[in-house]
Request: fold
Amino acid sequence: MNITSFGYEFEAHATCDCGSGEYPRAISDARGIYICRACHVCEDRKLSGYRPEIFTNPQYAADERIEDDF
Reply:
């Protein structure tokens, strides 16, 4: 069975691609924009490349235009 999350399709019972065997969750920024899927084992590593404020401040500065109806 597949599920759709943030416009992406995933296997409902698929384990995380980090190889931990854990089940991932979809992570989005403060604006609700999909970032990635991660489990508790790899979440810090996967999110380390993003500025922390994108997860807490929906008015964060962005270099590109963000569509309101995305």
Notes: Residues 6 and 34 are 6 Å apart (CA to CA).
